[in-house]
Amino acid sequence: MIKSLHSPAYVVFRQVMADTREHQGLTQAELANRLGKPQSFVSKYESGERRLDVVEFLLVCEALGVEPTALFQSLLGAIHENK
Length: 83
Hints:
The protein is mainly alpha-helical. Helices cover about 70% and strands about 0% of the residues.
C-alpha cells in the first residue's frame, strides 16, 4: 500500500498548495513568517516530508489569503484530472 504522503492524490495536494503560494507571489519564507513558523515548516509539507492536518490547512489558507473551500474545489478538480 502506498503511504498517504506519497499517494497520487497527496502529491497533487502538495502541488496545489505550492502553486497557490507561488500564485500569491509568496516565497516559502514569507508564508512561514505569516504563519509564525520556520521556513522548513512550509518546505516539509510541500515536499511531502510532513503532513498538513486540516487545522493547519485552514491556517495556511488564511495566511495565503484564499478561501479554503475554493482551494478544496481546485484540489478536487486537480485530483480528478490526474486519475
